[in-house]
Design brief:
The complex is a heterodimer of chains A (339) and B (115).
Chain A lengths: L3 E5 L3 H12 L3 E5 L14 E2 L4 E2 H9 L6 E4 L4 E7 L2 E6 L4 E4 L1 E4 L3 E3 L16 E3 H10 L13 E8 L15 H15 L4 E6 L9 H10 L4 E4 L4 E4 L5 E7 L4 E7 L1 E6 L1 E3 L1 H10 L26 E3 L9 H18 L3
Parallel strand pairs in A: 1-2, 1-9, 2-5, 9-20, 11-18, 12-13, 12-18, 13-14
Antiparallel strand pairs in A: 3-4, 6-7, 7-8, 10-19, 15-16, 16-17
Helix pairs in contact in A: 1-7, 4-5
Chain B lengths: L1 H6 L18 H9 L11 H5 L10 H10 L5 H5 L7 H5 L6 H16 L1
Helix pairs in contact in B: 2-7
The chains are: A alpha/beta (339), B mainly alpha (115).
The complex binds flavin-adenine dinucleotide and iron/sulfur cluster (SF4) (3 copies).
Chain lengths: 339, 115
């Protein structure tokens, strides 16, 4: 009997894990709750740092997907049971299959910006999220605020729903600093006359060429970086957003208006992942992200033999980190199946 | 000294350096023992952006915390007296620093020291 692996979630992590498992001769069922594969990257118009279009990245990942990968779409995995030396996995729609090993590739959910009520998302029309902005870029239309005007000033607020214990998210989402720099540049390219500001606590340019992009934002686009965290925003009569921050490097409270405010929403663990992990008896899920058996040496293993993790469901990752993690997950699974 | 200097027509420029080794660090230890969340501050400035007192004075809790942690405590009693203890800062702090109690503990620790 050929070995069979179920991969849960068909974002970049699930796709890349499945393709690599299949190349090793393993039969894979890739289960995805949505109609199409691709996960969050479907929503990203262009990827940092080199502005590769999200759809192109996904096409490249999907290209040459081996035939022994079967995609089971429109199926949300709701149950997993470990029975002797195999797993029974079931979906909300009655779908059920057995597997020799399973891979969690369930990714993350976007922070719901309405939970930071004082920032005005869902209340003031000209407060949007970074995900909304990607969608606006994708439509290819000229950038206007919700009143139909070209904003003269655009503000980006870092760490919305991340590094914030008031919303129970202590972690850093890792990708939003560089996403803000990328989006600030894209906005400047569309509206060269506009002023663009980023409000940050720390600029975390951890990846290859991220610091370079930050420098380009300064050098070529004159994007302003203010070290201060937004305390609250309000709306004036003209629909502008009035921000209150402390300019911490000058040590003075600062008031500044923006025609459009973009909230850099973070990555949160998916509630459904936690409940699946609970059903399996995984205990190391401290904040909802699945903790690997060892973060340094065994990043794709969990505490349970036969249960693996790949991608952002074990913590915030960029697409390139996710793909590398997925390939390594495939090897970890193959090793477990003694192939 | 400064008066004399003026009399004789020369000026003295005070050294602006934080002399970390000469500064006394006992006050920050006392405050941290009474309110351990002192050590969790990441200097984000949300408290000072929202602060009722900061609109009218140059008071900044973020700044006060840094002065305390560097042992620059000589002006602290005057600083914390500007706080109205309204508690707005506590509602916004991303690190859940217990700001109100922190200010109370700083006052307690610095006021006897300066009498
Ligand atoms: C605003 C923003 C912008 C970003 N921009 C970039 C960028 O420019 N460049 C970059 O490198 N990275 C970027 N990222 C990061 C990127 O989105 C992630 O690296 C990537 O999506 C992680 O892939 P994943 O497969 O682990 O998770 P996901 O993309 O979240 O995919 C998970 C998949 O699993 C499915 N799923 C979840 N639970 C179940 C279940 N129970 N049953 C069935 N299916 C399930 C989901 O429907 C989804 O399709 C950005 C992130 C954010 C928040
Ligand atoms: S990557 Fe930057 S914006 Fe995102 S949570 Fe971390 S520090 Fe904040
Ligand atoms: S309690 Fe003091 S420091 Fe905090 S907001 Fe009120 S006046 Fe400002
Ligand atoms: S809001 Fe909290 S973390 Fe930020 S500067 Fe004030 S006390 Fe420090």
């Amino acid at each position: 009997m050929p070995k069979h692996v179920i991969v849960i979630g068909a974002g970049p992590a699930g796709l890349e894990t499945s393709a690599n498992l299949a190349k090793l001769g393993i039969a894979v069922t890739l289960v995805e709750k949505e109609e199409s594969t691709g996960g969050h990257v479907k929503q990203w118009h262009a990827l940092f740092p080199a502005l590769l279009p999200g759809t192109e990245a996904l096409d490249a990942i999907r290209k040459g997907m081996p035939e022994n990968v079967r995609v089971q779409n429109k199926t949300t995995v709701t149950g997993i049971e470990a029975v002797n030396n195999y797993f029974t996995v079931s979906g909300h729609n009655g779908w059920q299959e057995k597997a020799d090993a399973i891979v969690f590739a369930t990714g993350f959910q976007l922070f719901d910006a309405r939970r930071k009520e004082e920032y005005g998302y869902g209340i003031y029309e000209n407060v949007i999220t970074s995900a909304d902005l990607e969608e606006m870029f994708a439509t290819g239309k000229s950038l206007v605020n919700r009143h139909g005007n070209k904003p003269e000033r655009i503000g980006f607020v870092h760490c919305v729903g991340s590094r914030d214990e008031k919303v129970n998210n202590l972690h850093c989402s890792k990708v939003c600093c560089i996403t803000a720099v990328k989006q600030a540049i894209e906005v400047k390219q569309m509206l060269p006359e506009a002023e663009v500001f980023c409000f940050y606590m720390d600029l975390r340019m951890f990846g290859r060429h991220y610091e370079e992009l930050y420098k380009e934002a300064q050098e070529k686009y004159n994007i302003q970086f203010i070290r201060g965290r937004l305390s609250e925003s309000a709306e004036d009569q003209d629909g502008n957003i009035v921000l209150k921050v402390e300019d911490t490097l000058l040590g003075k409270p600062l008031r500044i208006k923006a025609g459009l405010l973009v909230l850099m929403v973070g990555m949160e663990p998916l509630a459904g992942t936690k409940s699946l992990a609970d059903k399996l008896g995984l205990t190391k899920v401290p904040d909802g992200f699945i903790q690997p058996a060892d973060e340094v040496l065994q990043s794709n293993f969990t505490e349970l033999p036969g249960v693996f993790v790949a991608g952002a469901c074990s913590g915030p990752k960029s697409v390139s980190d996710t793909l590398a993690d997925a390939r390594s997950a495939a090897l970890a699974v193959a090793g477990f199946l003694k192939l | 000294m400064e008066k004399k200097a003026r009399q004789f027509g020369y000026t003295i420029t005070r050294d602006r350096q934080i002399d970390y080794d000469a500064n006394k660090h006992d006050i920050s230890k006392i405050v941290a023992a009474a309110e351990p969340s002192l050590n969790l501050c990441i200097s984000c400035g949300t408290c000072s952006a929202t602060c009722s007192a900061a609109l009218f004075t140059d008071f900044s809790l973020r700044h006060v915390i840094l002065l305390l942690r560097r042992g620059e405590t000589s002006g602290l009693a005057k600083e914390v007296a500007k706080c109205m203890l309204c508690g707005k800062c506590q509602l916004v702090c991303p690190r859940n620093v217990s700001t109100r109690n922190l200010i109370i503990q700083i006052s307690k620790a610095v006021i006897p020291a300066q009498l």
